[in-house]
Specification:
Length: 451
């Protein structure tokens, strides 16, 4: 059985039977059969269905938000914002997919030369719990608009969200088996990857999960896109507007209760303002109201599972053992972890070297901009980052030196359907979203013609 448990009160919400091997094989076969016709559907038909999905998401925002909040502890208001973002995503690809995948004429010696984009087949998505709708649709919507069909292995603690997503595609009018949720555990993933009908795998998750899936797919010579962890630097120069930077630091570190791969995690602050910045950040952290995430007044709630809070507690304690100091927070009770600030953080500590997937901010000071960039890039991760300064030209110059897939100047790091999203180093490879995302799971075919 796959169980849905409310992390706030520990109550069982629902249970689902895992698929038998025979049922799993049937779903994969159904996906292969669906692809044979879906690949030949017109972009206009796909657009109509995708815009309908966008509309349904908008109309059912409260219902969908409630389930996400109950299953993984996300604040209800944040769940609503996630659904709105998913609706925009569907509209974006519904309106732009045909243009993104149109044949491209190339001048060669041949009478006619062009690049043609065609779908690959059945694509498996292995998705996490922290954004239970957005992560799934971010992979599935462009893949389906390109003519592929999708199988979803969702995180085991959000099965209700997984079931609802398939129901949304059905309600929008997509043909059967174009999108299917698989109620399975992680042990079944290898079998799916090795199946001859599965042509590609998209995974968002931990470094360990990414390494495992990439290894399995590599043995089968199958395309993968990996979006893994991050330890994003939030670089604050001495001339930054401190109150503005602190306000955004709180949002970036505590959004989704800190459980975001692109949350700011290492706050690299000029020594000229680090004390003032830290004091103001502490004041904001201490002012936040904790409670039940379904309550609209709650600002900080539980993490998605108690074991995740325990792991975070261990990382904090190991950092303290190595010389870091807590100036606020640090207490854990079941799945709740207080918003926490660590100072005197240095390389060699978990708070610097590892991803802290929860409401913990690590403060690191620097003296020169060269040191700031060196600290920012001293990481196994390279997903995102930000630079905060009144000198925009300087901010852009420094942003170009940060080793990551996305970097923002004087604005929060976030994913946007119009911009490519992904990382380098151990944050993964490949890109989601924008034109680049829809071209990940297609065959880029060169065609040259002479009469």
């Amino acid at each position: 059985m796959i169980s849905s448990i409310n992390p706030f009160d520990g109550k069982l919400l629902a249970e689902f039977s895992a698929l038998t091997p025979e049922e799993l094989n049937k779903k994969i076969s159904d996906a292969g059969e669906a692809f044979r016709s879906w690949r030949n559907s017109s972009f206009q038909n796909r657009k109509i269905l995708m815009l309908k999905l966008s509309e349904i998401l908008h109309d059912k925002k409260d219902e969908l938000s409630r389930i996400a909040t109950l299953e993984m502890g996300k604040l209800f208001i944040e769940s609503g914002l996630e659904i709105e973002k998913c609706s925009r995503l569907c509209k974006y690809y519904g309106e732009n997919a045909e243009q993104f995948l149109a044949d491209e004429t190339i001048e060669t010696e041949a009478e006619k030369s062009f690049i043609h984009y065609e779908p690959m087949g059945v694509i498996l998505g292995v998705m996490p719990w922290n954004f239970p709708y957005w992560q799934v649709l971010r992979f599935a919507v462009p893949a389906i608009m390109a003519g592929n069909v999708c199988l979803l292995k969702h995180a085991s603690n959000v099965p209700q969200c997984a079931v609802l997503i398939e129901e949304l595609f059905t309600e929008a009018g997509f043909p059967p088996a174009v999108f299917q949720t698989l109620m399975i555990d992680s042990s079944s993933v290898e079998k799916i990857i090795s199946h001859h009908l599965v042509k590609g795998i998209s995974l968002t998750g931990s470094e360990h999960a990414g390494s495992s899936v990439a290894s399995l797919a590599g043995k089968q010579i199958k395309k993968t896109v990996l979006e893994l962890g991050g330890s994003d630097p939030f670089i604050v120069l001495h001339d930054a507007e401190i109150n503005f930077a602190v306000k955004n630091a709180v949002s970036s570190r505590l959004g989704n209760n800190g459980q975001s791969c692109i949350a700011a995690k290492r706050f690299i602050v000029s020594e000229k303002i680090v004390d003032e910045f830290t004091d103001k950040l502490k004041e904001k952290f201490l002012s936040l109201q904790s409670g039940n995430p379904i309550n609209k007044k709650t600002q900080v709630s539980v993490m998605a599972r108690e074991d995740l809070a325990v792991e975070l507690e261990m990382q904090v304690n190991k950092s303290i053992d190595k010389g870091a100091q807590i100036i606020c927070g640090g207490r854990r009770e079941a799945a709740f972890f207080q918003p926490t600030i660590l100072v005197k953080v240095k390389p060699g500590m978990p708070a610097f070297d590892e991803e802290l997937f929860g409401p913990v901010a690590a403060i690191i000071s620097f003296t020169t901009e060269e040191e700031a960039i060196r600290l920012a890039n001293n990481s196994q991760f390279g997903l995102g980052g930000s630079v905060w300064t009144k000198d925009v030209a300087r901010g852009i110059s420094l942003a170009k030196q940060v080793e990551c897939g996305s970097v923002y100047v004087n604005t929060l790091m976030k994913s946007d359907q119009r911009m490519p999203f992904g990382g380098i180093k151990k944050s993964g490879y490949g890109r989601e979203l924008s034109l680049h995302g829809i071209r990940e799971f297609v065959n880029v075919k060169s065609v040259m013609v002479n009469s």
